[in-house]
Amino acid sequence: MNPTSEIQDLARKVEEQLSARRVVLTMGGEPTYIPHQPRGAEWNLEAMGPEKLNYAHKMASNLLEDECPGAVALQVFGKWYPGEPLPRWNVVLLDNPGDVLWPNRDTLLLSKRDGRNHSRDATRLAKKVAEKLGLSDFLMPARNPSAPKRNTCGWVLPLDFVEEEWTSEKWPWSKENPIPLFAGDSQIGLRLPLGDLPEDALRRALTVECIDGAIHLFIPPLEWAGFRKLISFFSETVEENNLTDIILCGYGPSGAPETVRTFGLAADPGVLEINLPACTDWVSYRHNLLAADTAARKAGLTTTRLQLNGGVNGTGGGSHLAFGGTSIETNPFLERPNRIASILRYWQHHPVLSYAFSGQYVGPGCQAPRFDEGPTHSLYETEVACEGMESIRGSFDPFWIDQFLHNLMTDASGNTHRAELCFDKFYNPTAPNGCIGIIEFRAFETLPDTDLMATVSLLIRTIIARLVKRPFGRRLRRMGKQLHDYFFLPSWLWEDLQEVCEDLTKAGFPFDPEWLRPVFEFRFPERGKMEVSGGDLILRQALESYPLMAEESQGLSTVRKVDNSTDRLEILLPDHSVLEKGYLLVNGIEMPFTKHSAGMVCGLRYKCASAHPALHPNVPIQSPLLFEWVDQKTGKVATAARYHHWHPTQPVYDGFPTSEEEAEQRRKDRWIPAPEREGLIARGRPPRTSPEFKVTVDLRRQQF
C-alpha cells in the first residue's frame, strides 16, 4: 500500500529541509516477529532455539527470492551474554546491487535439506577450496576432544588476505596429528585452541565440516575485498561439484562499501529480531521495512501476540529506531552536539513519545525508561549535561558526548542499553561497535500494521528535522508524579500528540495526528461501553508501571522480577453534562472525574491478578470490577456492568486463542451487563486519595 499523498509530501519536505542544511541523517530499525502460535521457551524468555533459526532461514530465503536476488546469506555470531553457552546467532544478508555475490540461492540451506549426508562432500570441498587458493599444504584435519586421534570431524585452513594475496602458515598440528578442539557443539571455527599457537602466529582460519548432514563453511574475519573473493571461490566450487545444503557461517566482512545493504535476522529473547539496513531517507526505510515484513509473513511469522484473555499485543519485542550519520566525520549529532540536547529536552517535554508507541508495560522497570524516571538526581544532572553540550564551540573530543550521557541514560540498575534514548553505540571506545554514531530510540514496539510502523518512524524523523531547523532549548519539565498519573492515560497522550503535531506544523512540517489514530486504537483498546444518562461511558485500556522487586538469587545468576499484579484503565465520559445527572461507582467507590478536552476522565488502578513476588499481599484480587451508574436524584443504580480481567466463569482458559476471532470473543465475554443491579439503592463511599494520584484512583487503597 502506498502512503497517502499528504504523507509523501511531508516526507519530501523533511528530506528537503535536511538537505538544505547539508545534513545526511541515516535511519534504521529493528521490528520483531513471532509465529502465529508461539510455543516453547524460545518464543517466551529464551533467545535461541531451533525453531527460531529455521524461521530465520526461511525468511532469508524469501528475501533472497523477492527483494535481493544475488545477495549472500551468512550465519554469523553476535552478542554473547553471561549465562548463555554460545554467542547468539545472526542470519545476515549482504546485498550489493549490481554485484551478484551468490548466484544460486538453491545451494544454500535456507528452507529444506536435500536429505543427503554431506560428510564426504565437506572433505572434498575443503580440499578443492584449499587447492584453488594455492594453500593445500596448510590444510589440517580437526578432531573432537573425546574422539580417537585419527577421527576427523572437519578441516582447518589458517587464512588471511594480505596485499591482494591469500596467505597461510603452518600450525603445530598435521594430518597425522589433528587439531584437538575444545568441547562443544558449535562450529569448529569457534572451538580452535588458538591459545596453544605461538604468540606471533596467524590466529584466523577457514573451517569446513558437516553438521547434521549440512556443510558448514566458517569464514574468518576478513576485509571486504578478501571476503568477496573468498565467497566467489566458494560459489564456483560448490557449483562445479554440484553440492547443496551449504551454510556459510563465521564472521561477516568489515569495510563493506556504502552500497551494500545488510538485513540481519537475530536471535532475541522471545522474538526474531530484524535489523534493517541503514538508509539516508524515509522512503528507502519504508521500502526495507515492507520488504522485511513481506518475507516474514511469507515464512509464517506475525507482529502480534494473542494473550490468554483475548488481549492483542505486539510481539513483546522492540521495534527500536536508530538515527546517525554515514560516518563519524559527517555525523549530524557530532557536528552540532546541541542537536542531542534538543532531542533530550524535546522527548522529556512530550511523554507521548515515550509511552504511546512502546509496550503495554512502561515506567522505571521497563526496557526503555525515560531518564526522568530514574534516580532523583537524573533530571537535574541531565539538564546540566544539556547545557554542557549546548556550550560546545569549535572542535572537541567526541568522547565528551559519552562522558556527558553514559551515567545518565540508563535504567534504574545502571544498564546503559536499557534506556529510552540509548547512546551505548554513539561514541563509547570501550565497547565493541561503540563508536558508530548511532542514537537508538528504544521506546517503540512492533505494531500489527507495517505501514503504521513506517508512519511512526516518519514522525520521529520529522521531529529530528524540526530540531535541526530550530533547536529546542526549553527548560526540562518538573512533572514529578504527574508524569504517570496523567500520561499513563490515553486521553492525555493523545492531547500531547496533538501538541507535538501542532509544533511540527508551525515549523513547516504538517503532520496530521489522525494518521496515528489506529496506533492509539491498538494500544488503548476499548474494554467496555455503556449508556449513562443519555451519554456514553467508555472504558479503555491504559498503561501500567510494574514495580521492580528485590534481587533474587537463581543459581549462579541474580535476577530482579517485577510485580505485574496490577492493571490500569481509563474511564471517559465524552459528554460533560452527564455528571449533572448521575455518578459512577466502581466496586462501591465513587469515581472523581477530571475535566479534559476529550470529556471527563478518570484513571483506575486495581489488583487484577495474584503474583509472586508482589507488593501488598493483604489486598485480594479486585476483578471483576463492578461499574454502577447511579441516578443523582433517586440514588438508585440506573445501569451496571462487570469487567473481568480474566475468564468470567472459569479459573483457566482452554489454551491460547487460535485466531483473531476467538481472541475478540474472549475480550467481549469479559464485559458483562449486570441488569440485576438496576433499581437497587447504591451505597458508595468517596475514594482515599494521595498526592501521587490526582486523576487516578488506586482501588488497592480502598479496601480498608
UniProtKB/TrEMBL annotation:
Mark out the compositionally biased spans (Basic and acidic residues).
664-680
Which InterPro entries does the record cross-reference, listed alphabetically? DUF2126
Residue limits of the DUF2126 domain?
6-137, 199-700
Stretches the record annotates as Disordered: 652-691
Q: What name does this protein carry?
A: Transglutaminase family protein
Q: Native species of this protein? A: Puniceicoccus vermicola
